[in-house]
What we know:
Elements: E1 15-19, H1 25-37, E2 53-57, E3 72-76, E4 83-87, H2 88-94, H3 96-107, H4 112-118, E5 121-123, E6 137-138
Helix pairs in contact: 1-3, 2-3
Amino acid sequence: MKTFTPKPADLTHDWYVIDATDVVLGRLATQVATLLRGKNKPSYAPHADSGNHVIVLNADKIALTGNKMGKELYQHSGRPGGLRRDSYAWLLANKPERIIRSAVKGMLPKNRLAAVQIKRLHIFVDGEHPYGAQKPQVFEIAQVSQQAK
């Protein structure tokens, strides 16, 4: 039996919608990274771009466990003096999409393919998105935060 290698004509990019209300950040990021890489498809190959588009709604309603509100998220621009640090509490109030994007980016491979895959991540603070014409499928995350109950 020969190993199946997907050709560019075999690759499809589906659309998924995830509601992040009361979902723990780590659980959300693992599911989103799996969908972005295309690991949910039987034609998955690590070197092929078989990833999906993922729309995350209600980014400001994610659940942070532990003492993350007191911790900080660091980001460096690569230029001298370009270190930026913001607390998770400030980011959750002002830029919650940055929390999710950095968590998902850390779970993607460290190569050129990851740059293509992270561009397919669309994060929105409210419950509306402009991608209705693509007919995205709803992706349910089964376990929500225990603190939200």
